[in-house]
Structure formats: C-alpha cells, structure tokens
Amino acid sequence: MSNSDFTPRDNFGSKFGIVAAAAGSAVGLGNIWKFPYVAGQNGGGAFLVVYLLFIIAIGLPVMLSEFSIGRRAQRNAIGSFKKLAPGKPWYLVGVMGVAAAFLILSFYSAVAGWTLEYVAKSVTNAFAEKNETELNNMFGSFISGTWRPLFWQFIFMILTAWIVVAGVKKGIEKYTKILMPLLVVMIIILCIRSVTLPGSGEGLAFLFRPDFSALSADAVLSALGQAFFSLSLGMGTLITYGSYIGKNDNLTGTVLHVSAADTIIAILAGVAIFPAVFAFGIDPGEGPGLVFITLPNIFQQMPGGYFFALLFFILLAVAALTSSISVLEVVVAYFVEELNLTRRRATILAASMITVLGVFCTLSFGIMSDVSIFGLVFFDLMDFTASNLLLPLGGFFIVMFVGWFLGAGPSRKEISNEGILKLGYFPVFIFLVRFVAPFAIALVFIYGLGLIRF
Ligand code: TRP
To answer: How far does residue 305's CA lie from ligand 1's centre (Å)?
Structure first.
C-alpha cells in the first residue's frame, strides 16, 4: 500500500495500540510544559484540586462520549455528526473542532519547536556551567528571535505532516509504544532529583497544599481549559480516533487508562518542576518559559546531566509529536472524507495553513510582541480562544449530544459493544453527560468569563 491510498477506516492494530495512540495524543506538552506553567500562574495546589475534579466529573464523560460518537459513526469529527444527526446543525460542533485544531496546532508547534532547539542545545552542551540568570537569558533571547524559532517550528510541522501522511497504524502507533514509557522513567528520575534539592519542600507545599483563597474565577476557567487540553478533548480528536477503534474493544477501559496516564504524568511533571522552581528561586508564575528555564537548571545539578538533558528533550519532542499528529489528523480526516482530497494533499494543505498561523504565534514573543488583540499577544490569543473557549464549548455540545440527542439506548449499545459488556456504571455515565458535565461547563464558563460573580 502506498502512502497516499490510506483507507480512511484504518484500524488500530491492537488493544495496546489504541491506548498507546490515545495516550500519545493526550500526553504531550500539555502535561509537561503547560500544566506546570498554568498551575504556577494560578496558585498551585488549589488549581490542582479543581483540575482533578474537572477531570473526573467532566473529562471522563466527555472522553467516553467522543469515543462513542466516533466509533458509532465511523467518520471524522464533522462527518460523524452529519451521519448520526442528518440534516441537523450538530455538525457545527465538528466545524468548531476543526477550527480549534488550527488554533491549537499554531501555538503548539511554536512550543514544540522550542523543544527541538533544546535538543540542539543539549547536544552542544549549552547549559553547562550556566547559572539561573544565564539560563533565563538564554531562553529569552532564543524565543524573542525570528529565524531560529521559526526554523524549528517549520521542522516540527514537517515532521508532523510526514507522520500523518503515513496513516494511522504505521504512523501513530509505532512511536508511542516504546517512547512513552521511557518518558515516564525520565520524569521520575527528574522528580527524584528535584525533591532532593535543598529548599525543595516549599515547592511540594505549593503544589499539594491548596490555598483556596488564592483561587480566582480566571483560575477555575483555566483549570477547565487545561483539563480539556491535556486530555485532548472537545475538538473531535477522540471522535476521529474513536472511529479507528475496533468494535470489540472496551471504550470505558481505554478512557480510564488514558485519563489515568495523562493525569499521573501531569502531576509527576509538577513534582519535577515546582520543588526545583523554589529551590532555585524561580518565579512559579514565570509563564510559558517555566519548564525551559527550570529543567536545564535541574540537569546541571545531576551527574550525567548532559545525557539526561539530551534524552529528555528528545522524548519531550516525541511526546509533542504524538500529540500534534492527533490534532492535524482531525483536519486531515475531514479534508479527506468530506472534501475528497487525497491524504497527502489534505495533509500538505492543512499543515501549510497552520504553519502560517503558527508564524504569528512564534513572532509574538519577538518582533510582534507589542501587537495585542483583546489585550493578548497572538500566541496567548490562540491558546485562550482554543483551550478556554472552543474546547469547553465543544465538550458541552458533545455531552449534550450523547446524553440527550443520541440518548441512553444507543449510547449504551455503543459503549457495551452491542450488549456484550455489562455496564453497571452506565446510569452514572448518563447522569454525568446529561446533567453534571453540561451544568458544570456552563457554570465555569459564565463565571470564568466574568459574566456572573458570586
Ligand atoms: N493533549 C495534548 C497535550 O497535552 C495536546 C492535544 C492533542 C490536544 N490533541 C488535542 C489538545 C486535542 C486539545 C484537543 O499536549
């Protein structure tokens, strides 16, 4: 089979393959770069508690809903709604998802490019003998440049497109299976080094001792956005992946494995970062540079730091890649199935459009840093609009669709593999998708946007 005659309904090869691909999508920069920086900006512990609540009450039901929609319809994010609700406006949820994919990948590829730069810096041993201030300046001068960050962003987009062209089974599954477990081992090693640094206790307290008085409405909305972002929810990634899951696979089991892996890795990333942040006197609210400044500091304090840094940034780049392909796949599956493009053309078209948007994200740390829209630079505007607005909104309609439009009968059939699996928890699921998740999303949304205040 040549690369271009990928059949749209390619299936994942094995049970582990599904978990690997979905976990590969979920685990990425969201866990290791974004979670620590957003938690750091929003007070730490209290943010973590709210985040975990959202994962359980909203994330799990949304994820199971996405898988059910995709596997039932056997289509892309937009086509699935068209098939299950012909002639109804539900497909607009998919349209919103495809739009979100563009925005997410535009800033995601910028940060993924940074990880490639840090691979290169590790190779040349650029962190050696540098103190906190020097590492900070090093990061600052890199991201505020023009050609270097753009170069790495382009490289990353080319890698992403290349894997997506190769198709689901060959492209996506393969990379995740081996490299993800290795990433986990690396993070655990970092955790050990971080918590044994002198002065690290404050960092653990920051992460695990919640101070709810520090929790703003903004922080609650960011926790919701982060839950969606980290689990890859709300834009049809998991609808698209659901359509590749075999009819005999257990959807609920996959949901639990993927969410648990994703959440554990985010928390581990927090344990790796915050003790070191406090030990080195870095500001936890530092922003998007937080891990890029903290990690090289930790590597400096480790025997064999050169190799750990190199291996870690390579693994981080791969984790970013297994996530970015899942974002691009949403757009490509749509272009292929609804616009009848070949897989190769669809990928090139989508990746090029995203790269153009991505240039603005990257430059918003440099020559475009004074250009702001609604008070946000381009990078933050893309992130905020996608993560905090489009994803929760998408999630809201996805659970409403499953809870109220598809209804209990058909969703039970899908989730139970046509009645084969016994679903003791099904009433809980239906209650969550019908009432709890929509209500919670709506409330956080309205509250977080400042439309109401308690
Ligand atoms: N979850 C990924 C991460 O944590 C990013 C990602 C992949 C994503 N697919 C997505 C985010 C779909 C939102 C929606 O890095």
So the answer is: 29
Number of domains, the chain: 1
Residue owning the nearest CA to atom 10 of ligand 1? 232
Domain that holds residue 119: 3-448
Query: pLDDT class for 4, splitting at 50, 70, 90?
Result: very low
pLDDT digits (tens, 9 = 90+) for 396-422: 999 999 999 999 999 999 999 999 999
Torsion angles phi and psi, residue 17, rounded to 5: -60, -40
Whether 454 is in a domain gets the answer no
Q: What is the CATH number of the domain that holds 257?
A: 1.10.4160
Distance 380 CA to ligand 1 centre (A): 16
393 found inside a domain? yes
Confidence band of 109 (pLDDT split at 50, 70, 90): very high
Local structure of 106: helix, strand or coil: helix
3-state secondary structure of 422: coil
Task: Look up residue 268 and give its amino acid.
Answer: L
Judge whether 453 lies within some domain.
no
The Cα 163–Cα 7 span in angstroms is 15
Question: What is the pTM for the complete model shown?
Answer: 0.94
C-beta atoms surrounding 2 within 10 Å: 6
State which of 96, 156, 229 you would mutate to test the pocket of ligand 1, scoring each by most atoms of that ligand within 8 A of its C-beta: 229
